[in-house]
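Teaching note: in complex prediction, the entire set of molecules is handled at once rather than each chain in isolation. The prompt given to students was simply: 'Predict the structure of this complex.' The entities are:
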Amino acid sequence: MKQLKDKLIEARTLLDASFDKKMTLPEGKEKRLVEAMRYSAIGGGKAFRAFLVLTVGEMLGLKKESALQIATALEMVHTFSLIHDDLPAMDNDTMRRGKPTNHIQFDEATAILAGDSLVINAFEVLSEENNLAPEIRCQLIHFLAQMAGKEGMCGGQMLDLIGEKETLNLEEITRLQTKKTGALLRFAVLAPAIASHADESTKEALEKYADCIGLMFQITDDILDIEGDEKLMGKTLGKDKLETKSTFVSLMGLEEARQKAHQLGKEAKEALSFFGEKADLLLEASDFILERKN
Amino acid sequence: MKQLKDKLIEARTLLDASFDKKMTLPEGKEKRLVEAMRYSAIGGGKAFRAFLVLTVGEMLGLKKESALQIATALEMVHTFSLIHDDLPAMDNDTMRRGKPTNHIQFDEATAILAGDSLVINAFEVLSEENNLAPEIRCQLIHFLAQMAGKEGMCGGQMLDLIGEKETLNLEEITRLQTKKTGALLRFAVLAPAIASHADESTKEALEKYADCIGLMFQITDDILDIEGDEKLMGKTLGKDKLETKSTFVSLMGLEEARQKAHQLGKEAKEALSFFGEKADLLLEASDFILERKN
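The expected output is the structure of the full assembly:
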């Protein structure tokens, strides 16, 4: 997995440089807002979504500059979702990626605004003039909005909040996760295909791969919430059990959840066979999710 | 002002029909999110921003369908800002437009998510295929993101929050309001000009008009916070004084603030002279802001 690790580090480095450019500190007291945006965006996390965009983009011959623009917008949306999910009214988390969450470091109002500004900034970035035709940029914006909004990530988060009060069945938990985690991963993998005018079979294979790793990501997350190491994860664990929340693990049991994750790994691999050796890195990424410790 | 009143009602009606189409209730428990979005979006307020888009669009010969699309996106952003501004961590308001604020009617987490989903939905709407060329749609998305985000409305709200703890000077208060209220009004007036390929002189005249009514809007808001009728305003008044916040009135005094508002009204009129009689409705709108009771 050395290649994967190097590529993840490269993605993080490229992303941070891009964030730095897109979020320059302004003059005046309102710079506090951009400080809060940068605090959560720069240097945090594995940049896994950016890595996916860059890797699929490279596989399909997309210009690196265009892929990085897509990755920047996507990771802005991802960061926005983490900041808002951590708020006291939501998951009420105080630690994220090994440091205080945004509303602890700044304050609640600033954290809300920083999230708002990040999601808005994502659409600013995607609409900018670049190598991509305006028609393609509009398609990407539309796709990102669908994956992030009421029918995608935000809809999933709503179900997640409802799941804290009501018991959700397996169908609902699957829908929750398909929306909450899966939607942005789907964007990560399919947006470079849209941007490089890929054919339908290419898109279908990538979509299948995205859906498998999305669900796998969440199942392993649920398993890690029980078995993981808080230091490695950089956040508080065991919260699901504490809150008697329905998860894949609580509904399927630990063993069946593990089997399901492995089954999804197999399906992801099958989907990638379409691309042959060119998809080796994506294959490694799938194994990485399956075996991850954080 | 009969014509203006009719036009405001027409804008509200068109906007509500458009909101209804863009925010259909989904199946499943997550429909609560769309219920919350619709609660704050539909039927609330004067739809003044939509009116501006439709009126400028009509003046410049823009197709009504395109103008309505722009108006829908803009009012989604406006509604998002109201929901988040009302949150306990922000202005902590319990009443808005004569009914309980979103987080009172639903809950805080749902209100945060409803705001998030509305701002994302705005970009989905603007990116949709329609009569406008993709290049123009990208320009509109970029413009809306700039006016709404860290350099626009959100930046203004950050300054507003800082102003609750620190004294702001007149320059800062002006910048605050130019961003917080002015930016979206600027979009309302200029977006139809971009969409109809208006020339630079047209854009300049409209920009001048937008900036005058934006500042005027805020000054009259500050005056109404002291002198207004809570029933007519549909929200709690006197909060600025209670919180000893810097406002135009506290910095300039009531009389000078009133004079400044009238001066801005005069300048708005001058800017509109460029369009002759075609701009009569926009002139009425400017008078309406100056004389408004809510």
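Point out the following to students. Chain B has a mean pLDDT of 94. Chain B touches chain A through 60 residues (CB under 8 Å).
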